[in-house]
Amino acid sequence: MQIKKEMKMADAIHRNYLLLPVINRLGIQLGFQDKTIEKVCSEQKVDVEFFLTILNAFLDTNDKLSKQLQVHSVKDVVAYLLKTHSYYLERIIPEIENRINLLIQHSQLSKDEFLLVKNFFEEYKKELYTHISLEEKVVYPYMIEIANAYHKKELSQSLRDKINSSPVTSYEKEHSDIEAKLFDLKNILIKYLPRPNDSYIRNRILVELFTLEQDLNDHSRIENNVLVPQITQMENTLLAQK
Predict the structure, then answer these.
(1) Are the beta carbons of 100 and 121 closer than 8 angstroms?
(2) Is residue 201 domain-shared with residue 107, that is, in the same domain?
(3) pLDDT of residue 192
(4) What is the reported pTM?
(5) Is residue 103 domain-shared with residue 16, that is, in the same domain?
(6) How would you write 121-190 as a 3-class SS string?
């Protein structure tokens, strides 16, 4: 069942609480009473069709739903993805880091175990920050540049050279490293630390890591299944121009 504009916004959250940060990133905050999605979006000046497409693509990983995003502008999709970056950097990673510090303080870890957890998290954080920096400084500006050139039907020589040397598909593999490191970090917490007296803190860290993983998967799915094919088609069209 897809979310539709006639549905109450609160009902959408009751259907899946993981939509909360997605809705916030789209410009909607809590306190919307019993208003419908259409009414809330209208009041908050949010494009209701884009809002619904993002929510439904998040809830259902069906590739057909993801591809519906291709009817929206590259700029709008990139703007949403940039907000997810801010959410990771300003909220999620600091919260996970605080909980890991609590785990270290309140667990009987040996020095080696302490370093294993701390260093592995630092490596993961560094990989994620590097990946986000690449996307924000290189990949997203390139996508927007391609979209602008496509709609203007104008291709400069410098942009032609960029397409030939570093097409958008050359960045697809960047996700695999951070996904592997996140999986390994979860495994350390699940398999290799000594049995705790109180599992609460470790369980909370794992819940947050699994939630982050799902959000990152949605993020990369939008990039790989929506933006990359869309930009590739634009690149090919531009190169075919005389």
Answers:
(1) yes
(2) yes
(3) 82
(4) 0.85
(5) no
(6) HHHHHHHHHHHHHHHHHHHHHHHHHHHHHHHHCCCCHHHHHHHHHCCHHHHCCHHHHHHHHHHHHHHHHH
